């Protein structure tokens, strides 16, 4: 009698990374204070109001506080929400000190540079930040690092996030140097959510192609 064929591996029932990471919602939230700053700064400048930068900074803080309150009420973790609000307050403080409207985006530029460097270093030292984030969300702590396939997959997928930070810097830095406040606002409002969404979408195939067919999936490190 011929031996029974080897059982086929059960298909992986993994959550998509968009489901785990939340898609572009956070990037959209972060764009609201930026839009409030630029629009208020423009309107008050056109109408001849005194200190348009002050009005813009105040509008950004109010918008950030409204978004923070809305998200906390919707069930998001207060720490993450308040961290985002702190970034808005810091950006407003910088622009009030320097008196240069484009400096409102300095926090974002420095944050992007630091994030690109941190993600790249995490890949090199074999602690890819995507694995840290997803492993934490799945309650795995560091078990995913003991799975060489998952570790390789998270390293590969983390490059998508490095790339999006580099693209942001390539767009933001020349606009900041040229003092193009409106274009900075447009780029920040439109580009950032798109790049985050693309990074989330690109991460999953990059991760999955590193896993062999018989791998049980990201929920079950070997």
Task: Indicate the mean pLDDT.
Answer: 85
Please tell me how large the radius of gyration is.
21 Å
pLDDT < 50 runs, ≥5 residues: 1-13
**What's the shape?**
elongated
* Number of beta-strand segments: 0
How many helices? Answer: 8
Strand content: under 5%
Largest sheet report: none
Subunit arrangement of the protein: single chain
What is the element string, with H for helices and E for strands?
Answer: HHHHHHHH
Q: Total domains, how many? A: 2
Structural class: mainly alpha
* Alpha-carbon distance between the two ends: 34 Å
Helix content: over 70%
Task: Explain this structure.
This protein is mainly α and 222 residues long. The protein is built from eight helices and no strands. The chain has two domains: 22-99, no CATH class; 100-222, no CATH class. The longest helix has 30 residues, at 148-177. It is elongated.
SSE layout and pairings?
Layout: H1 17-21, H2 25-46, H3 52-73, H4 78-98, H5 106-124, H6 129-137, H7 148-177, H8 181-208
Helix pairs in contact: 2-3, 2-8, 3-4, 5-7, 7-8
Q: Keywords, please?
A:
222 residues; mainly alpha; 2 domains; 8 helices; 70% helix
Task: Write a compact overview of the structure shown.
This protein has 222 residues and is an all-alpha fold.
